[in-house]
Amino acid sequence: MKYEIILFDVDDTLFDFKKAESYALHNTFTQFGLPQGATEYKASYDEINSVLWREAEEGHITSVQLRVERFKRLFTFHDLDFNPDAFSAAYLRYLGEGTFLMDGAVELCDMLSDCRLAIITNGIKEVQTSRIQLSPLRDVFEQIIISEEVGCQKPQAGIFDYAFTKLDISDKSKVLMVGDSLTSDIQGGNKYGMDTCWFNPAGKTNASGIQPTYEIKSLMELSNRVLSKRPILNRTSAEI
User: Fold this and answer.
1) Is pLDDT at 136 greater than 70 in this prediction?
2) What pLDDT, on the 0 to 100 scale, is given for residue 131?
């Protein structure tokens, strides 16, 4: 096998973050007396949250600031009288319970028992640690690298420097970065000199100009096609 070390993203790669997020938002709004809020304000929350995470990837805001700022902006926009700090704390607690896995995640990790597996994730330490430790994947990973601990986000080189040091990696050709985000996982891995695998279960068109080494629609393709050395070519937008 060409790759000895597989670096996995967490959210929407191994773990179903959309389910975890829905669970957390519903329970938090319910706790604060507005059970319909998760549905009513979800679109606004998604827009605000996406903008802030892009700013975090670019180094303009920290995850510590982001965790409260997204709710502060949401409540201001909709004139809601909630304390954003208290709301954020409750939301993160529920989010840490969200151990929903993507299809094939457990099976894939079992099949990769001969590889060194590690996590490299943009996220909040207590949330990511809790979700992994409560899941069937709790004993799978040699290292769990979380951006909040490192002080920088994918695609910044610093988080990969940290991961390579922790894992004692010297040969980038033996490492594969797997994730769902072109702008953080794939761009970060590409710039760092690693091969990359874009997990694209929805078959999204790639108009970003960021080219992964491989593209897969299911996690099992990683084992069955990429790591088994069966050919898998980058597809054009017209083929996706």
Assistant:
1) yes
2) 96
pLDDT of residue 1: 62
Reported confidence tier of residue 58, pLDDT bands at 50, 70, 90: confident
Peptide bond connecting 35 to the previous residue in cis, omega within 30 degrees of 0: no
Quote the CA–CA distance of 181 and 27 in Å, as a whole number: 27
Q: How many residues does the chain have?
A: 240
- pLDDT given for residue 229 in this prediction: 54
Q: What tokens were used for 157? A: 């080189």
Out of 9, 11, 16, 195, the active site residue is 9
**What is the separation of C-alpha 73 from the centre of its chain, rounded to a whole number of angstroms?**
23
158 is written with which tokens? Answer: 């610093």
94 and 27 in contact (C-beta within 8 Å)? yes
Q: How big is the chain by its Cα radius of gyration, in Å?
A: 18
Alpha-helical regions (H) of the chain: 17-31, 37-40, 42-57, 63-78, 84-95, 105-111, 125-133, 147-150, 157-167, 187-192, 220-221
Helices 63-78/42-57 angle, 10° precision: 150
Q: Is pLDDT at 233 greater than 80 in this prediction?
A: no
Whether 103 sits among the annotated catalytic residues: the reply is: no
Q: Taking Cα atoms as reference points, which of 161, 126, 15, 28 lies closest to residue 82?
A: 28
**118: enclosing H helix or E strand:** strand 116-121
| Tokens (6 digits) for 211 | 């080219």
What is the Cα–Cα distance from 31 to 92, expressed in whole angstroms?
A: 13
DSSP string, 202-233: T-----SS---SEEESSTHHIIIIITTT---P
